[in-house]
Amino acid sequence: MENQLTEINTSLNELKSSQNKIINSVNEQGKILKNFNKKFEDILEQINKLSTENSELKNRITFLEENFKTSNKGNEIYFEQNIINELFDRQYRAKNIIVYNLPEAVSDSNNINSDENQIKLIINELKLNYKSMKLHRLGRPTNKDRPLKATFSEVNHTFDILRSQSNLRITSLWSNIRISSDRTEKQREIMSNLRKELEYRRNGDETDIIIKIH
Asked: Does the pLDDT of residue 77 top 70, yes or no?
């Protein structure tokens, strides 16, 4: 009888020990589950944060795209307007020529050295016959001869003069005279860049290169 009680007591202790182990295991699993839930909540919070940032980024991209479209459209209009202005400016200047190195004298038609008489002599030298013109010195008076702008009634008059001006170089009186078209600001900028490039390339190996303007 005593042995049976001992065995029962031993079994109860073993059951109690097993129960404690199970309880401890459940508690550990509970802690693990709690930690897992905490991590899951953290991950969910990060996902929500990323989702919000992504939404804000999309809105920002949409805003920038709309601004770019508006800006690009504005640039296109500005570019087209510049082209139109440039064409009008060139058309306005088409009847003009600019004469360089022409000695400046008193504007008096009776003065043989007046601008009007000198231009007429140059035109005669080129074997042309244009009498209707307007003359105007460019810039403020200085101790140097200012360029002279001559405006003719027809565009083809300026073409004829520009085409035949090389004949002046073989004369003794007008060899120093240079004549150009009345270029726009954009054309002058292009010519300036071409001269710089020409100088740069001539300083290299391309000594025989020239600028040819059509």
From this structure: no
Identity of the amino acid at 187: Q
Distance CA 19, CA 111 (A): 132
H helix and E strand count, the chain: 4, 4
Single out the residue of 95, 97, 115 nearest to residue 107, CA to CA. Answer: 115
Number of Cβ within a 10 Å radius of residue 90? 15
d(C-alpha 90, C-alpha 186), whole Å: 10
Residue 131 domain-assigned?
A: yes
pLDDT classification of 28: cutoffs 50, 70, 90: confident
Q: Does 8 fall in a domain? A: no
Q: Are 211 and 136 in contact (CB under 8 A)?
A: no
Range of the domain at 48: 15-94
Q: Are residues 87 and 122 in the same domain?
A: no
C-alpha 161/C-alpha 2 separation (Å) is 143
Distance, in Å, from the CA atom of 43 to the CA atom of 64, rounded to the nearest integer, reads 31
Residue 58 confidence (pLDDT) above 70: yes
Q: Is the same domain home to 129 and 65?
A: no
Q: For the chain, how are helix, strand and coil distributed in percent, rounded to 5?
A: 65, 10, 25
Distance CA 206, CA 30 (A): 87
Quick one: average pLDDT of 131-144? 88
Instruction: Give 140's DSSP letter.
Output: -
pLDDT in tens, 91-107: 889 999 999 999 987 65
